[in-house]
Write a structure and sequence with these properties.
Layout (H helix, E strand, L loop, with lengths): L1 E2 L4 H8 L5 H30 L3 H22 L5 E12 L6 H11 L5 E4 L1 H19 L19 E11 L24
Parallel strand pairs: 2-3
Antiparallel strand pairs: 1-2, 2-4
């Protein structure tokens, strides 16, 4: 999905100026309230799961998805950044996926309409390249090798992609004199 500051002009014409402080404050207040509600709902979901109250758990989980969807809608109205989220499920075409699972994922996590059928059993390397190409396209050509060579094989049944491209200004910018190029150290100690 794409949330882009370029939509602000159209939004202003349709809904009034985005520069309106009252409107911005109202949106931000909704975001704060929805975040609080989502936190409370998540805590309830975790408690119901721990207590194995499955009937109430499923209802609470449905509410969690609905509140998350509302929160994402409000966040998209705040015109300060561009974000591209590449969410998708890539499933082995011969493997059955529960339709309720696919519907839930599609509805609440913007996965492009379900599970993209792929042939991991006989063509996993070509499918890896296809997935990488899709992620690259979705992230403005910045994430080029989400799935490195050797990450898939003929036993792979499902790949979940969740890559994020973000472009925005920091509320407190970094001072150039305080930054430098350096190696990034991975948790295993390797440097990149």
């Amino acid at each position: 999905s794409l949330i882009h500051t370029g939509m602000s002009e159209l939004n202003s014409k349709l809904n009034g100026s985005d520069d309106d402080p009252a409107k911005t404050a109202e949106i931000r207040a909704k975001i704060v309230e929805l975040r609080k509600e989502l936190k409370a709902v998540k805590a309830n979901v975790a408690q119901l799961k721990a207590e194995k109250k499955w009937q109430e758990f499923w209802a609470a989980q449905k509410k969690e998805h609905a509140v998350g969807t509302k929160l994402n809608a409000e966040l998209s109205k705040v015109d300060q950044y561009e974000i591209r989220v590449a969410n998708a499920l890539w499933g082995e075409k011969t493997y059955p996926f529960d339709p309720n699972y696919v519907k839930t994922i599609s509805t609440h996590y913007d996965t492009g309409g379900g599970v993209f059928p792929v042939d991991f059993r006989t063509n996993f390397e070509a499918e890896r390249l296809k997935i990488n190409g899709w992620v690259e396209e979705q992230t403005n050509d910045l994430i080029k090798d989400a799935l490195p060579k050797g990450s898939l094989n003929d036993l792979t049944r499902l790949v979940l992609t969740n890559a994020i491209y973000f472009k925005g200004d920091w509320s407190v910018p970094f001072k150039e004199e305080n930054t430098k190029d350096s190696d990034f150290t991975l948790s295993g100690g390797d440097k990149q």
